[in-house]
Amino acid sequence: MNSYERFMIALQRAKPDRVPLMELEVEESVRERIMPGASLLDFYEQIELDAICIFEDIPWKDVKKNIKRDHFGILRRFMKMDGPTWPFPVEPLVKEEQNLDEFLETFQIPDPFDPKRLQTLRSAIKRFKGKKAVVFGMHSSFIYPAFIRGIQNLLIDYIVNPVFAKKLTMTIVDYFKVLTEQAIEYGADAIIECEDYCSKTGPFMSIKHFREFVLPGLIEIGKVAKKNDVPFLKHADGYMWPLMDILVDEVGVDGFHPNEPTANMDIAEVKKVYGDKIAVIGNVDCAHLLTFGSPIEVKEATKECIFKTSPDGGHILSSSNVIHIGIPPENFLAMIEAAKECGRYPIKS
After folding, report:
1. What is the rounded CA–CA span in Å between residue 174 and residue 188?
2. Do 234 and 254 form a contact (C-beta atoms < 8 A)?
3. CA 130 to chain centre
4. Which of 42, 98, 159, 178 has the highest CB neighbour count under 10 A?
């Protein structure tokens, strides 16, 4: 059984030959310390992950030191800990004194048909199709509206400027719908929508506002995947229990990542409650254990995660977010090695 088959069987909530591995991202500095000089795809060729996640290629424009402008026109600050898709905005794109209707009239979204936008994805599909699962990572109805408006302003807009908030959100969703359709047409094996709605204690917004402003766009992206028979996965950090029923029963996600352990998302409990409907993906702690623990401690935690989550299938192992710059390479490799050692079926709990 190869990596592609292993991953897809687990997504179907069945048992492959062993527990598959995936990561949302392995940050460049970690890759460089493991395989100096290797390109992203050369790295993924050699590292024993069964699924690789590829995001759109953002044409960053240098503005000044550590500041770049993204394809939506947002100024974003590159800090040492940031990967290529995660830098936070310096300031909202919408200025405080700006008329909101005028902003929408002049706001230019990127061209989703620009062939350079999915160049890395196309290369990954050409290289790995049928051998490793290629997952397209994208966004929809919250992160970019929050970047453009400022998260506090956007949440206020949900109350005082709801028409603007909905128009802005759906403009962004329409861009990512087209991008997702193209990714599927090129041959992406799965889609993972990556946006956070919760802190470690609960949602940033009310459930009512989530349903009204965020959920419609998320459902639209899910429909694109579903109509093409492509699995639709969801990434969301934080304490997601208040939103899980919505994701599973109304959006119809096929898998959920990362079940963040430091936010009281016990992956075994998530599996117990929702395992008849979704695959669970996660959740070796990358905030503390992978960052500060020893390889032996990482191995033990990885084995514990497998023993409590994997026995009846439907589990894909990953870190609890990404393999970020603070994680020693030896700990990342220890997690992979532990999965190979104890993740072969049958697995006893």
Report:
1. 19
2. no
3. 22
4. 178
What does the block give as tokens for 123?
Answer: 């290369």
In one-letter notation, the amino acid at residue 244 is M
In the chain, what are the domain boundaries? 3-342
Query: In the CATH scheme, what is the code of domain 3-342?
Result: 3.20.20.210
Q: Exposed (0-12), middle (13-18) or buried (19+): which is 245, by Cβ within 10 Å?
A: exposed
| 267-274 helix and 295-309 helix, angle to the nearest 10 degrees | 20
Number of residues written out for the chain: 349
Per-residue pLDDT of 82-125, as tens digits, reads 454 478 899 999 988 889 999 999 999 999 999 999 999 999 99
Give the model confidence (pLDDT) of 184-198 as tens digits.
999 999 999 999 999
Q: Which of 29, 45, 37 is nearest to 324 (CA)?
A: 29
Of residues 121, 119, 257, 99, the one with CA closest to residue 188: 121
Q: Is 286 left (phi over 0), alpha (psi -120 to 50) or beta?
A: alpha
Query: What torsion, rounded to 10 degrees, do the Cα atoms 7, 8, 13, 14 define?
Result: -80
In which residue are the tokens 């997690």 written? 335
Q: What is the DSSP letter of 254?
A: S
For 317, the 3-state DSSP assignment is strand
